[in-house]
Design goal:
The chain is an alpha/beta fold. It contains 19 helices and 13 strands. Strand 12 and strand 13 form a beta hairpin.
């Protein structure tokens, strides 16, 4: 399946001063698939080494980091020649091989003419004991679950993506019913590649849910494998996320995890899930002024799941609720819609993203996004009531001196009201497409 990151991989291949590439991402987001596709499409030969249960990889770097010896050993093991500029060397599940992460430093320093890519579970890489990360010696890219536009590619609607990217609002208005139906499908299927491929191939809705449940069980097994003494706390935080998002105020509440719980009880568990890429953490910002990180409130935050389809599976949301009418967009107080919008914004790597809430008031802005040019206050409105009282007060009264322009994501067609633009929910990724580093 086509992924936006492919263009980044090509640019890495052709870049001056290229270093070994680490493709980061949570488990099951498609790292192995896209790197194999890249290797077969862009190189004369691909050498694939999976470190999991591989005796050869268990010993390859134990002796020393002599790159000449390492390359000769790999050639002999795979019966393939490694040619600079012609071969892609792909080391998968790198966290399972002793000293393999450290070896990337020596690939960078002593075999810089080779194209080397590695992938592995963030769970394993971040928790690898006895090894230091080769800081400054690797290039890094991040792969996320498939965006809505990647989902459209998968279901054969590439032309719709072009219309969305071009922001052809009059054309989109005529396609509104079709796009809403596709968005409902995405809310159910989500962006995990295995679920998307099954949906596209078999059109078997129950099978998609079984795949999602299996992925969730795999994550839970990983808790025990990598988290040690934090396992139970991680499970409690993980299982609380649907409940947290079903609240009117989605600020994370420790008491919703366990009665009487405090921050110190679950801080490490939350950070573990963030580092593993399984949850998306959005911190509160106290002042919508550049740069937003200067005004970060470290005590208040919201947690979302990495994928809206997995949120539906965790919540046991029935297929009929999600696929038949527009009720899915408002269920759980708009939790699915907010998670979806964040999932699309999260593909805009390195752009600061926060939320805003006012002390002693119900005023809240769902997201604050900082681009190079401006701060964008974003409100997600899934229900029919789109008066946007909080957003209007935020933009036109409380922070009028900052000359902000709001963005409302709702089920209504595009309209520019001066102080705010309304865009349909299905157009979120397209609206920000010029900021997305993956477009090529």
């Amino acid at each position: 399946m086509k992924r936006q990151i492919f263009g980044d991989l090509v640019r890495w291949k052709n870049s001056q001063g290229r270093k070994p590439l680490v493709l980061e991402g949570a488990r099951q987001v498609g790292k192995t698939f896209i790197l194999k596709e890249f290797g077969m499409a862009e190189f004369e030969n691909l050498i694939y080494l999976n470190c999991d249960n591989n005796d050869f990889m268990q010993t390859l770097f134990v002796q020393d980091f002599d790159m000449e010896r390492v390359v000769r050993a790999i050639e002999a093991y795979t019966n393939q020649s490694i040619k600079a500029g012609k071969t892609l060397l792909f080391i998968d599940e790198i966290q399972e091989a002793p000293r393999a992460l450290t070896a990337l430093k020596y690939f960078c320093e002593n075999a810089s003419d080779l194209h080397v890519v590695v992938a592995g579970s963030l769970l394993g890489i971040s928790c690898r004991t006895g090894e230091s990360y080769p800081v400054g010696k690797v290039d890094i890219l991040s792969l996320h679950p498939m965006s809505f536009e990647e989902f459209l590619w998968a279901v054969g609607e590439e032309q719709l993506c072009e219309v969305l990217k071009a922001k052809q609002w009059d054309v989109l208005r005529t396609l509104d019913t079709k796009l809403k139906d596709l968005l409902r499908q995405y809310f159910y299927v989500g962006g995990m590649p295995e679920a998307v491929l099954s949906y596209v191939t078999d059109h078997d809705v129950p099978k998609v849910r079984r795949i999602q449940k299996t992925i969730l069980k795999t994550y839970e097994r990983d808790f025990a494998k990598h988290a040690g003494g934090e396992t139970q706390r991680i499970r409690l935080v993980w299982s609380s996320i649907p409940r947290q998002l079903a609240r009117e105020n989605k600020k994370f509440v420790y008491g919703a995890v366990r009665k009487g719980a405090r921050a110190k009880d679950f801080e490490m568990a939350i950070q573990w899930l963030v580092d593993a890429g399984l949850v998306l953490k959005v911190k509160r910002c106290l002042n919508p002024t550049m740069p937003l990180p200067f005004y970060e409130d470290t005590e208040a935050f919201k947690l979302y799941l990495l994928d809206v389809g997995l949120l539906g599976a965790m919540s046991n949301a029935p297929a009929r609720l999600m696929l038949i009418d527009n009720q899915v967009f408002v269920e759980f107080k708009g939790a699915f819609s907010e998670n979806y919008v964040l999932q699309q914004l999260h593909t805009l790597d390195d752009l600061p993203l926060y939320y805003f809430s006012k002390d002693n008031s119900t005023q809240e802005v769902d997201f604050l996004l900082q681009t190079d040019e401006r701060i964008v206050p974003i409100e997600v409105k899934a229900e029919e009531n789109t008066k946007s009282k909080s957003l209007r007060g935020f933009v036109t009264v409380d922070h009028a001196d900052k000359h902000l322009k709001g963005l409302r994501c709702s089920m209504l067609p595009y309209v520019d009201q001066g102080w705010m633009e309304n865009i349909p929910l299905y157009a979120v990724a397209g609206y920000f497409s010029e900021l997305n580093p993956h477009y090529y």
